[in-house]
Amino acid sequence: MDTSILLNNLGHYARRVGRTVGRPAVILYYVLADPATPKKDKYIVYAALAYLLLPIDLISAKRIPILGWADEAAAIAFAYKRVKNNVTPDIEKMADELLDKWSL
Questions:
Q1: Which helix (DSSP H) or strand (DSSP E) does residue 90 occupy?
Q2: Using CB atoms within 10 A of its CB, is residue 25 exposed (0-12), middle (13-18) or buried (19+)?
Q3: Contact 51, 57 (CB under 8 A)
Q4: Stretch (H or E) spanning 97
Q5: Are the C-beta atoms of residues 76 and 52 closer than 8 Å to each other?
Q6: What is the pTM of this model?
Q7: pLDDT of 66
Q8: What percent of the chain has pLDDT over 90?
Q9: Half-sphere exposure of 54 (CA within 13 A, CB side)
Q10: What confidence tier does 36 reach under pLDDT thresholds 50, 70, 90?
Q11: Is the four-CA dihedral 40, 34, 14, 6 of positive or negative sign?
Q12: Which residues contact 11 (CB under 8 A, 6 or more apart)?
């Protein structure tokens, strides 16, 4: 997987939704990049980030905005809850530094 493309798309997403909403997705990116993260947890993160960033959704945010955003938020929240044991202070710091770099 090309991480620069994923990171670029996450940047666009985070700029659109803001720091508070974008931070969990950026943290998930760093959990995914961490070699210590178990494969099963990486699959959960891959699925959540793909659902967030790919244009195909169960509920389209363009057609039904509130529900469309809610299902994406639910996917990120579910993944974050499942892999939160892999979130280290270093991962949180890297996510915050990246969000600062993006001026969020």
A1: helix 89-101
A2: buried
A3: yes
A4: helix 89-101
A5: yes
A6: 0.88
A7: 77
A8: 67
A9: 11
A10: very high
A11: negative
A12: 102
Residue 103 φ/ψ, nearest 5 degrees:
60, 45
Q: What is the pLDDT of residue 103?
A: 87
* 14, 99 contact by CB (below 8 A): yes
| Cα 26 to Cα 32, 42, 62, 64, 65, distances in angstroms | 10, 14, 23, 25, 22
Contact 75, 57 (CB under 8 A): no
Task: Report the amino acid identity of residue 45.
Answer: V
Cβ neighbours of 42 (radius 10 Å): 16
For 103: left if phi > 0, alpha if psi spans -120 to 50, otherwise beta; the answer is left
Would you give the DSSP letter of residue 61? T
2 vs 48, which has greater pLDDT? 48
Give which of 15, 75, 86, 20 is closest to 50, Cα–Cα: 75
The model's confidence at residue 3, banded by pLDDT at 50, 70 and 90, is confident
Question: Confidence class of residue 61 from pLDDT cuts 50, 70 and 90?
Answer: low
Retrieve residue 85's tokens.
């044991």
